[in-house]
Write a structure and sequence with these properties.
533 residues; mainly alpha; 21 helices; 78% helix; 0% strand
Amino acid sequence: MKRLSPKVLFDSSDLESRILERSVSGGVISIGAQCLQFVLQLAGTSLLARLLSPADYGTVAMAAIVVGFVSMFKDAGLSMATIQQARVTRAQINNLFWLNCGMTLVMAAVVLLLAPVVARFYGKPCLAPVTAVLSVSFLISGVTIQHQALLQRHMMFGPVAVVRIASYLVYVLASAILAWYGMRYWSLVCGSLLQTTCSSLLCYYFCPWRPGRYEPATRVRAMLSFGGYLTGFDFLNYCARNLDNLLLGRFWGPDALGLYSRAYSLLTLPIQQLTRPLASVAIPALSRLQEQPDRYKAYYLKVVALLGCISMPAVMYLVVMAREVVELLLGGRWREAASIYMLLGISAIGQPIASTTGWLFVSQGRTKEMFRWGVIGSTLTVCAIVLGLPWGPKGVALAYSVFNCAAAPLLFYYACRKGPVGALDIVRAIVAPLWASGCTCGALLGVRELFKGSSAGITMAVGAGVTLAVVPLALAVSVKGRCQLKECCRLVGVLVELVRARLGPGGVGGLNVDRDGPNSARPNNSCSVTTPG
């Protein structure tokens, strides 16, 4: 695997001259790596769920709430500032490195001091040592924040993928071995520390940059301001997204929290595998199109339509097959999580599309407005969780989904108040995918009825085949749907051509792409777009 050359650490001229090649190949690598990681995470989740109990997961989840909350501040958005800056200097990165180290040291101390408070809050003395040990992860990860940022800045998607996948494998193997020997929740804690250590070592290997001394004369105030609003949004989002775990663990105990947290993770996992690689390519692409509103709008809407055609029917499949998914992946003793999984899935159908509003905020430089939306959205989420809490995990899941669905139109309106993309443009782009998802739901309900009593694996396999057949047929009904279907087919063709070009002589030079720029989109009449990756 190629390492980042020390000669180009702070020189992006070579990257800019080959931005098209890096964008296309990087998109393929990112999506491929996410698919592989998705499979590994499903396998790892399934394995560990059979070795550990819901109470074990719930115990670690209680400590992880505090650790994750504090970790919001260790980065302070400085890694994204490094990635997004047009030019960076060695002195700037040196200063950001030491700022990150200082913040992670403070965060580790805060978590260590909070350890006995966490144990007292939940009434579980074992949480004090668990939380204290997890604080070490801040010290390990803090020294490679800027190394990871430099790898991403230079679009080194291969090494980034290796770091993610290798460190996760270390986590699963270590946790499974320790769980086999009866370490219970400690197996997850130790596995997490080994995962962080592996990730840091690999980052140091792939990125040869080594920090120098702090230079007070070098200004990084603009980068701190940029990262500050992003951190503020992440902070509010984290508080809202983890309040359900906090309150369920406090009032309903570790068993209920274990069921809820596994259902939530199992549902969001496939969504993240799709949206993360797209965001890593789409945000810089949209940033380059800011001054060309027609191309910006066409690019964004085509990507949203493609994302909808893939994600909406896929999530609908997972929701309808909730019982089979939980039984197959988690095992029989997790059956109670199926209803929670299904209720959370109501809002998850549109979650991938809603997440793209973040692309608009960031690419248009509207992080202050993004933070303001964080205040609004977090308030609504907190209200939903509190209202559903008296009915336990199911009540929280239902209230969470209902409030998210109700807030979606407000989010689209707020994100599209400025810029070339309107809220109605997004609605028109996802009408056909919504129709296809509805048809998929009806077909899958029929499959479940016909295969009642069959094994979960058989029912899911037949349902997957039916979904793959129904979606293109449903899209073909309308002109808009046919346009989006052709675009999906074109994307597959581009990927096949890319693979052939990579395997043959000349690298990606043989790939036939538009010459207008790295992500040229044709507005108005056609269904063609140079897609990200």
